[in-house]
Design goal:
Structural class: mainly beta
Bound molecules: N-[(3-hydroxypyridin-2-yl)carbonyl]glycine, fe (iii) ion
Shape: globular
Largest sheet: 6 strands, antiparallel
Distance between the termini: 29 Å
Helix content: 10-25%
Order of helices and strands: EHEEEHEEEEEEEE
Number of strands: 12
């Protein structure tokens, strides 16, 4: 396995998952999910997203970037839940807190193409992710898009850390297994990723 990749299955208990989903759903009321667009083409993304924290990752026809306000409401993003800040303290081994918690919302047919997370200047900080709700088929490759990949299922409560060399590895989500969880009303999947954007 590529150096710096960590898989922490069932990091969050079912009760913790329930509380975290309730908190996220509540925060999304004022910080709503929206559908971003792909740079250049403007094609709609398969996944809807929002953000929590002082910065949020947005994608539109002009490109990818971090910004302090929601593109639809113009308001600052909501706060990062304490459970997520505690997770970062526990697993990141980084001397400063995360600045962005990207909320990705998957429906039954949603997917996320193979990509690297490369829009942060603090490249020495890991990206830490939490899966909630339906299971997903996650694919992890290497530093080149053409490198061999391996696939694994991510279930609700699982945590993935891309640190070290794996921070620059290609990865994506090939499919969601609908009805594999009852955690989220309507049966979707939420993936939360914590990022440090700028060097402390
Ligand atoms: C997902 N995850 O699980 C997509 N990125 O829905 C990511 O793109 C990701 O899980 C960086 C670090 C961990 C991840
Ligand atoms: Fe990613």
């Amino acid at each position: 396995m590529i150096e710096g990749f960590r898989f922490l299955p069932e990091y969050f208990s079912p009760a913790q998952q329930k509380a975290l989903v309730a908190e996220i759903l509540s925060l999304l009321e004022t910080c709503p999910l929206y559908r971003g667009a792909m740079p250049r083409t403007g094609k709609a993304m398969s996944v809807r997203n929002s953000n929590l924290g002082p910065l949020g990752w947005v994608s539109d026809i002009k490109g990818y970037r971090y910004q302090p306000t929601h593109p639809a409401t113009g308001e600052p993003w909501g706060p990062i839940p304490k459970a997520m800040l505690d997770l970062w303290s526990d697993v990141s081994d980084y001397p400063a807190p995360p600045q962005a918690c990207l909320v990705n919302w998957y429906e039954a047919g949603s997917r996320l193409g193979l990509h690297i997370d490369a829009d942060e200047t603090a490249r020495d900080a890991p990206v830490v992710s939490v899966s909630l709700g339906s299971r997903a088929l996650f694919r992890l490759g290497g530093l080149e898009r053409s490198d061999p990949t391996s696939s694994m299922r991510l279930a609700s409560g699982d945590v993935v850390v891309l640190g070290g060399v794996s921070r620059r590895a290609y990865h994506g989500v090939d499919r969601i297994y609908p009805d594999s969880s009852t955690l989220i009303p309507g049966g979707g999947r939420i993936n939360l990723t914590l990022r440090r954007v700028t060097a402390p």
